[in-house]
Amino acid sequence: MIDFEALAAAMGELDEDTVKEILEAVDSAGNAGKAMEACQKGMDTVGRLFEEGEYFVGDLIYAGELMTDAVEVLKPYLAGSESAGTKTRMILCTVKDDLHDIGKNIVRSMLEANGFEVLDLGIDCPAQKVVDTARAENIKIVALSGVLTLALTSMKATVQAIRDAGLDVKVIIGGAPVSAEACKNIGADEWAHSPQKTVDTCKAWAAEQ
Ligand code: B12
Questions:
Q1: Which domains, from first to last, does the chain contain?
Q2: How far apart (Å, rounded) are the C-alpha atoms in residues 156 and 154?
Q3: DSSP secondary-structure letter at 95?
Q4: Mean pLDDT, residues 7-32 taken together
Q5: Which residue in 57, 94, 96, 206 could disulfide with 88, CB within 3.0 to 4.6 Å?
Q6: How far is the CA of 156 from the centre of ligand 1 (A)?
Q7: What is the CA 103 to chain-centroid distance, rounded?
Q8: How many other CB atoms are found less than 10 A from the CB of residue 168?
Q9: Can you list the pairs that 35-40 forms with residues at least 24 positions away whose Cβ atoms lie under 8 Å?
Q10: Is 99 a pocket residue for ligand 1 (Cβ < 6 Å)?
Q11: 144-179: per-residue pLDDT in tens?
């Protein structure tokens, strides 16, 4: 029996030994999914303690490393069955001025596990780089990630740049500050918090092509 509450608490307390010990018991997609949720809950605690002045930037960095290690352990269980045949190529990046990439990397793993070839343009990605790559590589699907509130402004600029360039591209946005309202304001085609919704949306778009 995996104690997911204890996992969330250990993550929030940045207790690396306990996090590792609990993750060793993960052995299926079902409990890997719950473990991922627990880790994210722990990250929310980290964020709250940072806001309250109890944790500092060093703690955020350490939390980021802990979460990245946890994702590495959970990834093999979360990956779906890779589909055969031609892969749909798409762009994924964290938008300009945002350096957070743990969520983006989870989304990337899920997309790759579901048969997409992901051109990962990394973090702090300028709008023009997305436009240039989409044009040069004939990309039809772009996924934008962002965790800072500030990322919404960069997402809007990126979508605007894509539209101004006249590219026939579908855009999905995701990350903590994203919402239906933000999606409308930004002019994206779809939004999601869950990587699974991203996969489902991108699969539907790929099928339309
Ligand atoms: C770790 C961390 C960092 C690390 C990041 C390391 C890394 N490699 O990513 C470091 C130390 C670099 C960092 C820096 C900063 N951070 Co920080 N950070 C965090 C923390 C604790 C966890 C983020 C995380 O990885 N969460 C776990 C992942 C799995 O969740 P996620 O990113 O949301 O992704 C999930 C979904 O959103 C979704 N998703 C993500 N991307 C996409 C994309 C698509 C297309 C889709 C569909 C879905 C999707 O799927 C993922 C899996 O479910 C958060 C607190 C929190 N609760 O999130 C603060 C937080 C995001 N940081 C914050 C701040 C303020 C900062 C700094 C400004 C601190 C400073 N003073 O320097 C800097 C900013 C640097 C910058 N310019 O980006 C604030 C943001 C406030 C705001 N609303 O803008 C937060 C919320 C903390 C807080 N409560 O104050 N941070």
A1: 4-78 (1.10.1240.10), 88-208 (3.40.50.280)
A2: 5
A3: B
A4: 94
A5: 206
A6: 19
A7: 3
A8: 9
A9: 35/2, 35/4, 35/7, 35/70, 35/74, 36/70, 36/71, 36/74, 36/78, 36/106, 37/4, 38/4, 38/5, 38/7, 38/8, 38/11, 39/7, 39/8, 39/11, 39/67, 39/70, 39/71, 39/74
A10: yes
A11: 999 999 999 999 999 999 999 999 999 999 999 999
pLDDT one-digit tens code per residue, 92-149: 999 999 999 998 988 988 888 788 999 999 999 999 999 999 999 999 999 999 999 9
Task: Determine if ligand 1 sits within 6 Å of the CB of residue 74.
Answer: no
Where residue 9 falls among pLDDT bands split at 50, 70, 90? very high
Residues 6+ apart with CB under 8 A from 159: 144, 171, 173, 186, 187, 188
DSSP label of 143: E
Nearest CA to ligand 1 atom 65: 148
Q: How far is CA 160 from CA 129, 153, 169, 201, in A?
A: 13, 11, 12, 21
For tokens 């989409």, name the residue.
134
Check if 95 has its Cβ closer than 6 Å to any atom of ligand 1.
no
